[in-house]
Protein backbone atom coordinates (compact mmCIF):
# COMPACT_ATOMS: atom_id res chain seq x y z
CA UNK A 1 0.00 0.00 0.00
CA UNK A 2 1.13 3.56 -0.68
CA UNK A 3 0.41 6.48 1.63
CA UNK A 4 0.78 10.17 0.98
CA UNK A 5 0.56 12.32 4.12
CA UNK A 6 -0.38 15.99 3.85
CA UNK A 7 -0.21 18.05 7.03
CA UNK A 8 -0.46 21.74 7.72
CA UNK A 9 -2.53 24.47 9.37
CA UNK A 10 -6.22 25.15 8.76
CA UNK A 11 -6.97 26.66 5.37
CA UNK A 12 -3.63 25.89 3.69
CA UNK A 13 -5.51 24.08 0.92
CA UNK A 14 -4.83 20.54 2.13
CA UNK A 15 -8.27 19.12 1.41
CA UNK A 16 -8.56 20.61 -2.11
CA UNK A 17 -5.12 19.30 -3.03
CA UNK A 18 -5.48 15.93 -1.30
CA UNK A 19 -8.85 15.29 -2.97
CA UNK A 20 -7.54 16.18 -6.44
CA UNK A 21 -4.36 14.17 -5.96
CA UNK A 22 -6.28 11.09 -4.76
CA UNK A 23 -8.57 11.30 -7.77
CA UNK A 24 -5.60 11.51 -10.16
CA UNK A 25 -3.78 8.60 -8.56
CA UNK A 26 -6.88 6.45 -7.97
CA UNK A 27 -6.25 6.51 -4.20
CA UNK A 28 -8.73 7.07 -1.40
CA UNK A 29 -8.77 10.54 0.16
CA UNK A 30 -9.00 10.41 3.95
CA UNK A 31 -9.90 13.73 5.58
CA UNK A 32 -8.96 13.13 9.22
CA UNK A 33 -10.17 16.55 10.38
CA UNK A 34 -13.70 15.26 9.74
CA UNK A 35 -13.18 12.62 12.44
CA UNK A 36 -12.22 15.20 15.09
CA UNK A 37 -15.05 17.40 13.90
CA UNK A 38 -17.59 14.61 14.45
CA UNK A 39 -16.41 14.21 18.07
CA UNK A 40 -16.71 18.01 18.44
CA UNK A 41 -20.21 17.90 16.98
CA UNK A 42 -21.31 15.10 19.31
CA UNK A 43 -20.05 16.97 22.39
CA UNK A 44 -21.64 20.25 21.24
CA UNK A 45 -25.01 18.60 20.64
CA UNK A 46 -24.93 16.52 23.82
CA UNK A 47 -23.86 19.50 25.97
CA UNK A 48 -20.55 17.87 26.96
CA UNK A 49 -18.21 20.68 28.12
CA UNK A 50 -15.40 20.87 25.57
CA UNK A 51 -12.72 21.81 28.09
CA UNK A 52 -13.58 18.92 30.45
CA UNK A 53 -11.36 16.02 29.45
CA UNK A 54 -13.01 13.54 31.82
CA UNK A 55 -16.45 14.36 30.42
CA UNK A 56 -15.30 14.21 26.77
CA UNK A 57 -13.46 10.94 27.43
CA UNK A 58 -16.56 9.43 29.05
CA UNK A 59 -18.66 10.56 26.08
CA UNK A 60 -16.42 8.57 23.70
CA UNK A 61 -18.14 5.42 24.97
CA UNK A 62 -21.34 6.65 23.35
CA UNK A 63 -19.69 7.49 20.04
CA UNK A 64 -19.19 5.40 16.92
CA UNK A 65 -17.46 7.12 14.01
CA UNK A 66 -17.29 5.48 10.58
CA UNK A 67 -16.08 6.52 7.15
CA UNK A 68 -17.98 5.62 4.00
CA UNK A 69 -17.14 6.39 0.40
CA UNK A 70 -19.91 7.26 -2.03
CA UNK A 71 -18.61 7.66 -5.61
CA UNK A 72 -15.16 8.22 -4.13
CA UNK A 73 -16.39 10.99 -1.82
CA UNK A 74 -15.85 10.58 1.92
CA UNK A 75 -18.91 10.62 4.18
CA UNK A 76 -18.64 10.60 7.97
CA UNK A 77 -21.17 8.70 10.02
CA UNK A 78 -21.65 9.62 13.67
CA UNK A 79 -23.61 6.82 15.37
CA UNK A 80 -25.01 5.89 11.97
CA UNK A 81 -26.02 9.46 11.02
CA UNK A 82 -24.36 11.17 8.07
CA UNK A 83 -22.92 14.39 9.55
CA UNK A 84 -20.64 15.29 6.63
CA UNK A 85 -22.27 18.70 6.13
CA UNK A 86 -22.97 19.65 9.75
CA UNK A 87 -19.37 19.20 10.86
CA UNK A 88 -18.35 22.09 8.57
CA UNK A 89 -20.03 24.70 10.78
CA UNK A 90 -17.51 27.28 12.11
CA UNK A 91 -18.24 26.56 15.78
CA UNK A 92 -17.54 22.90 15.13
CA UNK A 93 -14.05 23.83 13.84
CA UNK A 94 -13.17 25.23 17.25
CA UNK A 95 -14.90 22.35 19.07
CA UNK A 96 -12.81 19.91 17.01
CA UNK A 97 -9.66 21.83 17.84
CA UNK A 98 -10.47 21.64 21.57
CA UNK A 99 -11.23 17.92 21.73
CA UNK A 100 -8.34 17.05 19.43
CA UNK A 101 -5.90 18.26 22.11
CA UNK A 102 -6.95 15.30 24.30
CA UNK A 103 -4.84 12.13 24.07
CA UNK A 104 -7.93 10.00 24.76
CA UNK A 105 -9.69 11.44 21.70
CA UNK A 106 -6.60 10.93 19.53
CA UNK A 107 -6.23 7.33 20.71
CA UNK A 108 -9.93 6.74 20.01
CA UNK A 109 -9.49 7.78 16.34
CA UNK A 110 -6.05 6.28 15.76
CA UNK A 111 -6.98 2.74 14.62
CA UNK A 112 -9.61 3.98 12.19
CA UNK A 113 -6.97 6.15 10.45
CA UNK A 114 -4.27 3.47 10.52
CA UNK A 115 -6.62 0.80 9.17
CA UNK A 116 -7.61 2.97 6.23
CA UNK A 117 -3.93 3.13 5.23
CA UNK A 118 -3.42 -0.60 5.80
CA UNK A 119 -6.33 -1.48 3.53
CA UNK A 120 -6.08 1.15 0.78
CA UNK A 121 -3.67 3.40 -1.07
CA UNK A 122 -4.42 6.73 0.57
CA UNK A 123 -3.85 10.43 0.45
CA UNK A 124 -4.49 11.40 4.08
CA UNK A 125 -4.56 14.95 5.37
CA UNK A 126 -4.50 16.33 8.90
CA UNK A 127 -2.07 17.72 11.46
CA UNK A 128 -0.09 14.68 12.64
CA UNK A 129 -0.30 12.25 9.73
CA UNK A 130 3.40 12.37 8.79
CA UNK A 131 4.56 12.58 12.41
CA UNK A 132 2.27 10.17 14.31
CA UNK A 133 -0.39 8.36 12.30
CA UNK A 134 1.65 7.29 9.24
CA UNK A 135 5.32 7.90 10.12
CA UNK A 136 6.31 5.50 7.31
CA UNK A 137 4.29 7.26 4.60
CA UNK A 138 6.18 7.19 1.29
CA UNK A 139 5.52 10.88 0.65
CA UNK A 140 5.05 13.59 3.29
CA UNK A 141 4.05 17.14 2.47
CA UNK A 142 3.80 20.04 4.90
CA UNK A 143 1.54 22.59 3.24
CA UNK A 144 1.38 26.12 4.61
CA UNK A 145 0.25 29.61 3.60
CA UNK A 146 0.12 32.95 5.44
CA UNK A 147 -2.72 33.37 7.96
CA UNK A 148 -4.22 36.20 5.86
CA UNK A 149 -4.23 34.15 2.69
CA UNK A 150 -5.76 31.17 4.53
CA UNK A 151 -8.46 33.46 5.89
CA UNK A 152 -9.21 34.81 2.39
CA UNK A 153 -9.64 31.23 1.15
CA UNK A 154 -12.00 30.36 4.02
CA UNK A 155 -14.01 33.53 3.25
CA UNK A 156 -14.35 32.46 -0.38
CA UNK A 157 -15.52 28.99 0.69
CA UNK A 158 -18.18 30.42 3.00
CA UNK A 159 -19.33 32.91 0.39
CA UNK A 160 -19.60 30.17 -2.23
CA UNK A 161 -21.99 28.40 0.15
CA UNK A 162 -23.99 31.60 0.59
CA UNK A 163 -22.78 32.00 4.20
CA UNK A 164 -21.84 35.40 5.58
CA UNK A 165 -18.34 35.72 7.01
CA UNK A 166 -16.40 38.58 8.56
CA UNK A 167 -12.68 38.73 7.62
CA UNK A 168 -11.39 39.91 11.00
CA UNK A 169 -13.46 37.35 12.86
CA UNK A 170 -12.30 34.53 10.59
CA UNK A 171 -8.67 35.65 10.89
CA UNK A 172 -9.00 35.50 14.68
CA UNK A 173 -10.45 31.99 14.39
CA UNK A 174 -7.61 30.89 12.06
CA UNK A 175 -4.98 32.27 14.47
CA UNK A 176 -6.67 30.74 17.50
CA UNK A 177 -6.79 27.32 15.87
CA UNK A 178 -3.15 27.55 14.75
CA UNK A 179 -2.18 28.43 18.28
CA UNK A 180 -4.18 25.54 19.80
CA UNK A 181 -2.96 23.03 17.20
CA UNK A 182 0.72 23.99 17.42
CA UNK A 183 1.00 24.34 21.16
CA UNK A 184 -0.84 21.29 22.44
CA UNK A 185 1.09 18.64 24.32
CA UNK A 186 -0.10 15.67 22.24
CA UNK A 187 0.55 15.38 18.52
CA UNK A 188 1.09 19.12 17.94
CA UNK A 189 1.04 20.42 14.41
CA UNK A 190 4.59 20.38 13.13
CA UNK A 191 6.49 19.44 10.01
CA UNK A 192 7.85 15.88 10.03
CA UNK A 193 11.62 15.89 9.56
CA UNK A 194 11.34 14.07 6.24
CA UNK A 195 8.40 16.12 4.94
CA UNK A 196 8.72 18.52 2.02
CA UNK A 197 7.47 21.99 2.98
CA UNK A 198 5.41 23.89 0.42
CA UNK A 199 4.23 27.46 1.01
CA UNK A 200 1.13 27.97 -1.13
CA UNK A 201 0.58 31.68 -0.31
CA UNK A 202 1.37 32.76 -3.86
CA UNK A 203 0.34 29.57 -5.66
CA UNK A 204 -2.99 28.48 -7.04
CA UNK A 205 -4.38 24.98 -6.59
CA UNK A 206 -3.09 23.77 -9.98
CA UNK A 207 0.44 24.92 -9.18
CA UNK A 208 0.42 23.24 -5.76
CA UNK A 209 -0.94 20.04 -7.27
CA UNK A 210 1.73 20.04 -9.99
CA UNK A 211 4.47 20.60 -7.40
CA UNK A 212 3.22 17.70 -5.27
CA UNK A 213 2.87 15.42 -8.28
CA UNK A 214 6.52 16.09 -9.08
CA UNK A 215 7.50 15.17 -5.52
CA UNK A 216 5.39 11.97 -5.68
CA UNK A 217 7.07 10.97 -8.96
CA UNK A 218 10.53 11.61 -7.52
CA UNK A 219 9.81 9.39 -4.52
CA UNK A 220 8.44 6.47 -6.54
O1 LIG B 1 -8.63 19.86 9.05
P1 LIG B 1 -9.80 20.45 9.81
O2 LIG B 1 -9.80 21.93 9.85
O3 LIG B 1 -11.11 19.88 9.37
O4 LIG B 1 -9.58 19.93 11.31
C1 LIG B 1 -10.35 20.38 12.40
C2 LIG B 1 -9.52 20.33 13.67
O5 LIG B 1 -9.24 18.96 13.99
C3 LIG B 1 -8.14 20.99 13.56
O6 LIG B 1 -8.15 22.35 13.94
C4 LIG B 1 -7.28 20.18 14.49
O7 LIG B 1 -7.35 20.71 15.79
C5 LIG B 1 -7.93 18.82 14.53
N1 LIG B 1 -7.17 17.82 13.79
C6 LIG B 1 -6.15 17.18 14.43
N2 LIG B 1 -5.46 16.19 13.81
C7 LIG B 1 -5.75 15.83 12.56
C8 LIG B 1 -6.80 16.49 11.86
C9 LIG B 1 -7.47 17.50 12.50
O8 LIG B 1 -5.85 17.49 15.58
N3 LIG B 1 -5.07 14.84 11.99
TrEMBL record:
Primary residence: cytoplasm
Coiled coil ranges: none
Recorded catalytic activity of this chain's protein: dCMP + ATP = dCDP + ADP; CMP + ATP = CDP + ADP
Residues that hold ATP according to the record: 8-16
Top-rank taxon, per record: Bacteria
Enzyme class: transferase
Catalytic activity, EC: 2.7.4.25
Alphabetized InterPro entries for the sequence: Cytidylate_kin, Cytidylate_kinase_dom, P-loop_NTPase
Domain Cytidylate kinase: residue ranges: 4-217
Single GO MF descriptor: kinase activity
Subcellular location field: Cytoplasm
Similarity comment text for this entry: Belongs to the cytidylate kinase family. Type 1 subfamily.
Protein name as catalogued: Cytidylate kinase
Amino acid sequence: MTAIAIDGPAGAGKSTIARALARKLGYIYVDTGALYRSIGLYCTEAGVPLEDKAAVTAALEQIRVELRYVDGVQRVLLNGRDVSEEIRRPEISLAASSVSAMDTVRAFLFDLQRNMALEHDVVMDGRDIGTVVLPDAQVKIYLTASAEERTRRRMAEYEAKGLHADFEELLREVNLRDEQDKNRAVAPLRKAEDAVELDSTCMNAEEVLAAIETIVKERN
